[in-house]
Amino acid sequence: MLTVRALNRTLLRRQQLLERTSMPTLDLVRHLIGLQGQDSLPPYLALAARLDPFDPAELSGAIERGEAVRLLTMRGTVHVLAAEDALVLRPWVQPVLDRISGANQTNREARGVPVPDLVAATRRILDDGPVTAKGLGERLAEEFPGVPARALAQRAREHVPLVQLPPRGLWRRSGGLVYQTLEHHLGRPMREPDVRELVRRYLRAFGPATPADMSAWSGVTKLGPVFEAVREELVEVPGADGRTRFDLPGAPYGDSDEPAPVRMLGTYDNVWLSHADRSLITTPEARARWLGSSGGVASVVLVDGFIGGLWRWRNEDVQLELFAPLTTGQRDELDEEVERVRGMLRG
Fold it and tell me: How far is the first Cα of the chain from the last one, in angstroms, to the nearest whole number?
């Protein structure tokens, strides 16, 4: 029967946050099934906290070569994904994006445009080559007179798999939003996912977990039948909170007494966004201090495996806001992490 601390240590172990790994960068991106990437920096911080050694040029080069892409997927947020994962995850989460699109106030003025017509027009425009976000909106406004360009562009990205092309998301480089369709950019078609394999992969990276947890990670609902389809492959894991979770036989577990080193992560990281019950990684009070009115207000410090502080990069240095005093050992670990992050960001 797993306690909250045992679940925490297990999650950190599977996320490579108990001990850094030396696996290739793109292999870790695949293992984690993508990296939260609304902003450019968090994916690099996510990898720096998990890999040793880590060279930001490895992820940057993968994006530049088309081995990884920036794409709207899980929960209606931008992720950095291995190319082959993007081709199966986008069609899987498209119903989620359709639902989000129907409630998004920024595209409200474009909802009168039939989705098939919008999709066809967007693809036709991008057949001629990549287009900036502003340019896409303007071209769509020519196709649908009287509809605001910004609303059209927003609705298009929700219904068409639009990759954010480099230099957007490259290390230490800036670039505006330039779009191309996923299939055109990679030269390969999207394909239907093996959802049962997605369950297995989710459990490898985030388990043990429930269907509701996987829904929290992906936004995709009604996953109970999918878990049931692979039920014979799974084991039941009782929790001290009364919940029964599912897992893969032989998957690694952490011990509740195992020390968890201090780690500095980005503003967003799936380690605390991928379960229905987030008590295994944060308290409500800590989460409230991180979460502002429209999203995270700062990057996160993990202390003893849980969100224990915030940090910001200001004036070419790390500024810390810790929620409680640290032990001498934790302070030493934090100093090492600060030096690691400082060295990476100063370049």
Answer: 46
Cα–Cα nearest to 204, from 3, 2, 13, 8: 13
CA–CA dist 306, 47 (Å, integer): 18
Using CA atoms, how far apart are residues 325 and 330, in angstroms rounded to an integer?
A: 9
Residue 240 has pLDDT above 90, yes or no: yes
CB 297 within 8 A of CB 310: yes
For residues 52 and 12, what is the distance between their CA atoms, to the nearest angstrom? 16
The answer to whether the beta carbons of residues 67 and 82 sit under 8 Å apart is yes
Phi, psi of 322 (to 5 degrees): -90, 145
Whether residues 181 and 39 share a domain: the answer is yes
> Are 43 and 339 spatial neighbours (Cβ–Cβ below 8 Å)?
no
The secondary structure of 86-100 as a DSSP string is HHHHHHHHHHHHHHH
Q: Which residue has the tokens 């954010």?
A: 164
Half-sphere exposure of 161 (CA within 13 A, CB side): 28
Is residue 257 domain-resident? Answer: no
* CB atoms near residue 184 (< 10 Å): 15
Per residue in 265-276, pLDDT tens? 999 999 999 999
Tokens of 269: 């990281």
**Residue 235 exposure: Cα atoms within 13 Å on the Cβ side:** 12
- Our measurement of the distance from residue 137's CA atom to the centroid of its chain's CA atoms, rounded to an integer in Å, reads 26
Q: Which domain holds residue 267?
A: 263-346
Which residues face 181 on adjacent strands? 162
CA atoms within 13 A on the CB side of 36: 18
User: Does the predicted TM-score (pTM) go above 0.90?
Assistant: yes
Do residues 2 and 236 touch, judged by C-beta distance below 8 A? no
Does residue 159 sit in the same domain as residue 115? yes
Pick the closest to residue 276 from 304, 239, 322 (CA basis): 239
